[in-house]
Amino acid sequence: MTSNPFVGSEALASGLVRKHELRTRYRVVFPDVYVEKDTVLTMYTRAEAAWLWSHREGVIAGRTAAALHGAKWVDEDKPVEIMWRNARPPRGLHTSDSSLRRDEYGRHGDVQITTVVRTAFDVGRCASLDDAVANLDALGNATRFRAADVLDLAERHRGARRIRRLRTALELYDPRAESPRETWLRLLLIRAGYPRPRTQIPVLRADGRSKYYLDMGWEEQMVAVEYDGDHHRTDPSAMRTTSNARRNSPPSDGRSFGSSKAIVRPTSCGESTRPGHRDCCEIAESSKSVIWQQSRRQRTRARGVR
To answer: Do the Cβ atoms of 71 and 81 come closer than 8 Å?
Structure first.
């Protein structure tokens, strides 16, 4: 037998296994869907098992589809999301009977899965705006989908739930964000009244050749903000190394960010996401004023007004 998920009744009917073998050598993932007992249940394995459970007719969707498209930070213990009409799915599955057009899904390996754009349409309509933006950022970091394409698809589904939430999330979407905590920090800064920061700012290391990327900031004003934490960087020694690089590295054009830089850690700011929560950012009000003044001047010059 294959190490992939399989339908037990089909294997019995074809004589590939006997009932005793099915009970002793394999384990149930979903009703009538089995894998070998020592199989590691990866996201893809569970998705394939879910698809088989749906009689090969369902479409993997939502955050499960995002993970299969390459998005990181997806909790593999969450139920597999599949578009399939079933009001009482087994444990470990979340079903939905959403409207889905033929050009909104395709094949990924052996399973049917929503396209990247359709996946963005789905994961960007969470109840929480912060979660919606984080989902879009993670998917965009892996696929670089265009917000305009998602908005075009949304026009097809004007009656879908939380369309307004999706549009707001797409306005805040940034595919350069490399972790949910970077997304959280960016939203925190915007809600605190700062202009939208640029993300992944390139800086030269001391050797003058290799580059390091600051999480976010305002390059013209030479103000940067970084998030350090176990959800963002998991290796403490690597965190110390990159922290030293930040202190000693000028921007890509040779200027120095100097002291106008904040390192935000979970020990200093906790997990709060309430609007207006600014104390963890540790950026001086004078920096905020400079950022706004220079941003206004740049917008004025762009309009041709002196």
So the answer is: no
